[in-house]
Amino acid sequence: MRILITNDDGINAPGLKVLEEIATELAGPDGEVWTVAPAFEQSGVGHAISYTRPMMISQMDERRFAAEGSPADCVLAALHDVMADKRPDLVLSGVNRGNNSAENALYSGTIGGAMEAALQGVRAVALSQYYGPAIKDAPDPFEASRVHGLSTMRALLERGVWTDDDYGIFYNINFPPVAAADVKGLRACPQGFRRDMGFGVQPVHSPSGRRFLWVTGAPQQQPTSPGTDADLNLKGYISVTPMRADLTAHDALEALKAIE
């Protein structure tokens, strides 16, 4: 198998090393693992692309490239330049430092990389490691994803739903904030929503007196509705959520016919 890996934490991030281990085992002895990842951290950029400026790309090693762009940029660079002669069979994005459950998925560059691959017709999965008190001071906070990542991916490739239609399915995997031995299992589930937990801004002043705004987050230990991703993660389960890039609210279309 020929696998492309990327992330939004940057090419030197520890989670990318975990993903490389998973991808190498998944590709097998006759496979290939290619890396095209952002030169610098790109957390929170979502599905952004560098449409109005060029990006520099540098080869760091064999099959390893750093691009000055977003994760979606990196996928485009890989598919249309670095690996243009032969596309990958699979794109993996992550392993993100922190969860991309619930509404976090909408801001995530990790998800954005997987989404772009799906739009380009390539199977894609985003992987993230939930952080929390139980692993805050652990020697390896990525232990759950490192130990369970390969089996999770194999299960998904063997028994998951994969489509080649427009806005094809891609997957969002989140590993729970617990030690690997405490992972309770794997659950397919919908995306949740943390009520009253959205992003905000905090004004600050620089030493020169200029006013700036820092974007602020919120505590991540509040569960979502029962059976949704963050709820299951906080209960010790690996969540697997199928996604599409189609933003249509299909449930509202029939009612909307009243305006026609």
TrEMBL record:
Keyword Metal-binding: yes
Function field: Nucleotidase that shows phosphatase activity on nucleoside 5'-monophosphates.
Keywords, in A-Z order: Cytoplasm, Hydrolase, Metal-binding, Nucleotide-binding
E.C. numbers: 3.1.3.5
NCBIfam families on file: PRK00346.1-4 (NF001490), PRK13931.1 (NF010541), surE (TIGR00087)
Protein's name in the database: 5'-nucleotidase SurE
Stored InterPro entries: SurE (IPR030048), SurE-like_Pase/nucleotidase (IPR002828), SurE-like_sf (IPR036523)
Domain Survival protein SurE-like phosphatase/nucleotidase: residue ranges: 3-195
Cofactor(s) needed: a divalent metal cation
Assigned protein family: Belongs to the SurE nucleotidase family.
Assigned GO CC terms: cytoplasm
SUPFAM superfamilies recorded: SurE-like (SSF64167)
GO molecular function annotations of the record: 3'-nucleotidase activity; 5'-nucleotidase activity; exopolyphosphatase activity; metal ion binding; nucleotide binding
Classification via HAMAP family: SurE
Pfam annotation, one family: SurE
UniProt keyword Transmembrane helix, yes or no: no
Catalytic activity: a ribonucleoside 5'-phosphate + H2O = a ribonucleoside + phosphate
Cofactor note: Binds 1 divalent metal cation per subunit.
Species assigned in the record: Roseovarius litoreus
Binding site for a divalent metal cation: D8, D9, S43, N96
Compartment list: Cytoplasm
